[in-house]
From TrEMBL, chain A:
This is Sorting nexin 1. It comes from Cocos nucifera. Residues 23-142 form the PX domain. Residues 1-18 have a biased composition (Low complexity). One of its GO terms (molecular function) is phosphatidylinositol binding.
Automatic annotation (TrEMBL), chain B:
This is Sorting nexin 2B-like. Keywords: Coiled coil. Residues 16-25, 39-53 have a biased composition (Low complexity). It holds the Pfam family PX. The keyword Coiled coil applies. Residues 283-317 form a coiled coil. GO terms for cellular component: endosome; membrane. PANTHER family: OS05G0346100 PROTEIN, SORTING NEXIN-RELATED. InterPro entries: AH/BAR_dom_sf (IPR027267), PX_dom (IPR001683), PX_dom_sf (IPR036871), SNX2A/B (IPR044279), Vps5_C (IPR015404). Gene3D superfamilies: Arfaptin homology (AH) domain/BAR domain, Phox-like domain. Residues 16-110 are annotated as: Disordered. Residues 73-88 have a biased composition (Basic and acidic residues).
Length: 414, 485
């Protein structure tokens, strides 16, 4: 997991104009602050950019941004860089009450930090002008830019998936009069699509279980502490009970006051629950989002393919028409030829766009797989470590209890 | 099934626990083999005598192949501990219940599948004689024994018998159920044997040693009691005074629902008069010590029940976490399969291996959690058993209270009878020569008074006995609870 303290993800490419030090771009998202009041309250984050790249205004720049600004950046990049898996954003929270809880804010801050750093370390994305705008412009410019773009480029993930489904089942353009939907018939790509869909399902399942696990840890902590309290009360009431009848049990009351240290156990479990949430469940959720981003790219690819096909068809028709006109030596031939040339250029453009996407996608897949392996490996490591630590501590706590029990009443155990 | 072996000493209430445990086991990935069955305590009779040892819970997962608990050496108690002293003091050296067998009733019943029941081989040996007795008993016999003991030893702390289960005959024959019942019966018999008074009782001896049919009068079931009572009630209400009183032998028993309806109503009226009436009843509970201890007992019971509730919540939380761990492991295994099947890049394979390792670990952890839970359930079971014992205490207290109530009722009966006689005599004296019918009435009432006085004496005696036995109850309680520690 990329933590805020990690060393800046250095760019691998060397710019010919690079200064003596290797070029770097490091961004940090910190310091969430609640601004505004009532319904319009929101959280603002401080974004600190440190760089030595010449395109930037200076070695260090601090701006204030809010979640909607991040969304703007994401959407702009998605528009401009089709074929690239845009790093995913954390979700908007639907529940009002939850929006300002400390845990949620921290989770979001971390996710935004990771988001911006992934962009800053992506070979193509980091050169984006929009990124520079985001990182440097003052707040008013940012707000203006944001309002301009609202509504045009906004797409929700649910819509994307819907479009994807539509693409698969949609009847093609009535103008072309085709019956079958236009789709790539690349077997490798088919395999990839299938893989991505399956992956999303399994990941969602794993993430769900991880979330449940977090909840269970909390519950267990609660139960342990409740139980400790109840036992303590039990011990208290037996202390001076029916004389010698309860002498054996009575000594338990000492032992049971020791149970107070069970409070420790509960805290451990709660901490572990939190730890699990941040370092295990979040990465899994992030993985799921990344996969969804891939699916968005697939939609783009499908669209581009369709466009290319359509244009190719139209161009061909135009060509046939042109030939006909040329044969008939009609006056319309001139116009037709100009039209034809325009259309051909467009068609070539569409083809080029599509091929760019294909190429980018394959590169991106490699990157994606490698990065995911690293991320997940780290998450697993944290998970294992956390669980081991928890188990050890609990075992120690119980173990230290045994000699105390032995001491206070020998007749209790043998 | 692993759960069957693990729930070797489970008691009735835990049947739902163990069935949910086995359900969880079913979800387990079939690729991973189930842990080998525990080779714990060879004889089940010694298993419930073992004290909860915390050393058992601390087992290292690295030692065992797939997460099963290592062998727990059955612990031997040294003879210096007070528990073995109690056991040594009992008349019986050994009681075991084993070998459940299905038997057919001689009578063909209407219910298909009915008429079959389970019998158990009860083996016992007395400390004195050393001779072993083997008898076959069914659960109905256990119920009979419990009822007779309750009647004979009114006022004592009588250990509660295992629950009757109202289930269909199909469930009755399932191995799990039979096993639970077997061990519950064994525990119960042992508790009776250890009891300083009941252990020496004839009823217990008859149960353990009399061959063939159990020579104790069987309890009448509810239906026949109701019939009986329905017959008697009209006589009591409308009939002559003779049918309406309580006989001395009845007075020493609590009023039974169904049979002694009239008496129950009278006693109910009396208890309400006690609570709400202005006058104090002639005899009251005065023993301060008793009242104090009763209060303490109630407090204890409250705490026990809270603690036991929390224990159950704890067990559930542990079970949940184990289950979720298992599910998580499963999800990752699926992921692994996916990555392996459709892998294009090397990084995928690396990731697949990672995921598989995590999955395996998670499933192992889940197993361990379940192990932990089984242990926890077993050890925390003591709490629940205490609660069961509180039932015995309740029984004793209510015996005392009902005996007192009987006395009070009879006394107020007597006083009202006297009043009636006085009235009748006053009225009849006004008529010259005496009123024959009234004089007859007076004679009948005097007869009733005589019988009622007798009954009152018996009831008073019974109450006195229960009261005087109370100091000794402390010992019995200690005997019972030391058994369970």
């Amino acid at each position: 997991m990329i933590s805020p303290q990690r060393s800046p993800p250095g760019s691998s490419s060397q710019s010919p104009r690079s200064p003596s030090a290797p070029p770097f771009l490091s961004v940090t998202v910190t310091d969430p602050v609640k601004l505004g009041n009532g319904v319009q309250a929101y959280i603002s984050y401080r974004v600190i950019t440190k760089t030595n790249l010449p395109e930037y205004q200076g070695p260090e720049k601090i701006v204030i941004r809010r979640y909607s600004d991040f969304v703007w950046l994401h959407d702009r990049l998605a528009e401009k860089y089709k074929g690239i898996f845009i790093p995913p954003l954390p979700e908007k929270s639907a529940v009002e009450k939850f929006r300002f809880s400390a845990e949620f804010i921290e989770m979001r801050r971390q996710a935004l930090d990771i988001f911006i750093n992934r962009i800053a370390s992506h070979p193509q994305l980091k050169q984006s002008e929009d990124l520079r705008t985001f990182l440097q412009e003052d707040e008013e410019t940012m707000e203006r830019a944001r309002f301009q773009e609202t509504g045009i480029f906004k797409k929700k993930p649910a819509d994307l998936i819907q479009i994807f489904k539509d693409v698969q089942s949609k009847v093609s353009d009535v103008v072309l009069g085709k019956e079958k939907p236009v789709e790539e018939s690349n077997p490798e790509y088919e395999k990839l699509k299938h893989y991505i869909f399956e992956l999303e399902d399994h990941l969602a399942e794993a993430q769900k279980q991880a979330y449940r696990l977090v909840k269970r840890h909390r519950e267990l902590g609660q139960s342990l502490s409740d139980f400790g309290k109840a036992i303590k009360l039990l011990g208290a009431c037996e202390g001076d009970s029916i004389g010698k009848v309860f002498s054996d049990l009575g000594s338990k009351s000492e032992l049971l006051s020791i149970k107070l240290q069970k409070e420790n156990d509960r805290n451990q479990l709660v901490m572990q629950a939190h730890n699990l949430l941040m370092n295990f469940e979040e990465p899994l959720k992030d993985y799921v989002r990344a996969v969804q981003s891939i699916k968005a790219t697939m939609v783009d690819r499908a669209n581009a393919f369709r466009q290319q096909c359509e244009l190719a068809e139209t161009t061909k028709l135009k060509e046939i028409n042109l030939d006909k006109l040329m044969l008939m030596r009609s006056e319309k031939a001139m116009e037709a030829e100009i039209e034809y040339k325009e259309l051909k250029a467009e068609s070539e453009e569409a083809t080029r766009r599509f091929e760019t996407i294909v190429k980018l996608m394959s590169e991106e897949m490699v990157r994606f797989q490698e990065q995911k392996t690293a991320d997940l490996g780290l998450a697993f490591h944290e998970f294992a470590k956390g669980q081991a630590k928890l188990a050890n501590e609990i075992a120690d706590a119980w173990r230290s209890l045994i000699p105390k029990i032995d001491a206070c009443s020998p007749s209790l155990c043998s | 099934m692993e759960s069957l072996v693990l729930s070797d000493v489970a008691s009735d209430y835990r049947s739902s626990m163990s069935s949910s445990l086995s359900a969880a086991a079913d979800d387990c990935d079939p690729l991973l083999s189930p842990p080998p069955p525990l080779s714990t305590a060879a004889s089940s009779s010694s298993s419930f005598l073992d004290p909860p040892s915390y050393a058992d819970v601390v087992f290292s997962p690295l030692d065992s192949q797939n997460g099963a608990a290592p062998d727990r050496p059955p612990l031997r108690r040294d003879s210096s501990s007070p528990r073995s002293d109690r056991a040594a003091a009992s008349e019986y050296a050994k009681i075991t219940v084993s070998d459940p067998e299905k038997e057919q009733d001689a009578v063909n019943s209407l219910v298909p599948g009915g008429g079959t029941y389970m019998t158990y081989l009860v083996t016992s040996r007395t400390r004195a004689g050393g001779a072993e007795f083997h008898v076959r008993r069914r659960f109905r016999d256990v119920v009979t024994l419990a009822d007779r003991l309750a009647e004979a030893y009114r006022g004592y702390f009588i250990p509660p018998r295992p629950d009757k289960n109202v289930v269909e005959s199909q469930v009755m024959q399932k191995h799990e159920f039979v096993e639970q019942r077997r061990s519950a019966i064994e525990k119960y018999l042992w508790r009776l044997a250890v009891h300083p008074v009941i252990g020496k009782s004839e009823e217990l001896r008859a149960f353990l040693q009399a061959q063939g049919k159990l020579p104790l009068p069987t309890s009448t079931d509810m239906a026949s009691r109701m019939l009986d009572g329905a017959v008697r009630l009209p006589k009591q209400l409308f009939g002559e005074g003779l049918a309406g009183y309580v006989t001395p032998q009845d007075a020493v028993q609590p009023a039974k629902w169904g049979r002694d309806l009239l008496r129950i109503f009278k006693e109910l009226k009396q208890s309400m008069a006690n609570d709400w009436g202005a006058a104090k009843p002639p005899v009251v509970e005065e023993d301060k010590e008793f009242l104090e201890r009763k209060e303490k007992m109630q407090d204890l019971e409250q705490q026990l029940s809270t603690a036991s509730q929390q224990a159950e919540a704890l067990v559930k939380a542990q079970q949940d976490i184990g289950e979720t761990m298992g599910q998580l492991g499963l999800a990752f295994i699926k992921l692994t399969k996916l990555e392996n099947v459709e892998s294009i890049y090397n990084s995928q394979r690396v990731r697949a291996t990672d995921a598989k390792n995590v999955a395996t670990a998670a499933v192992k952890a889940s197993r361990l959690y379940r192990e932990l839970n089984v242990q926890t359930v077993k050890h925390l079971d003591t709490l629940h058993e205490y609660l069961g014992l509180m039932l015995a205490v309740h029984g004793a207290f209510s015996d005392r209270a009902s005996a007192l109530l009987t006395v009070q009722t009879l006394m107020s009966d007597l006083s009202s009878l006297h009043t009636r006689i006085d009235k009748l005599e006053a009225a009849s004296s006004k008529i010259f020569g005496g009123d024959r019918s009234r004089m007859r009435k007076v004679e009948e009432l005097k007869e009733t008074i005589r019988v009622t006085e007798d009954a009152k004496c018996c009831a008073l005696r019974e109450y006195g006995r229960i009261k005087s036995d109370f100091p000794f109850l402390g010992f019995y309680w200690q005997a019972l609870e030391s058994k369970n520690l």
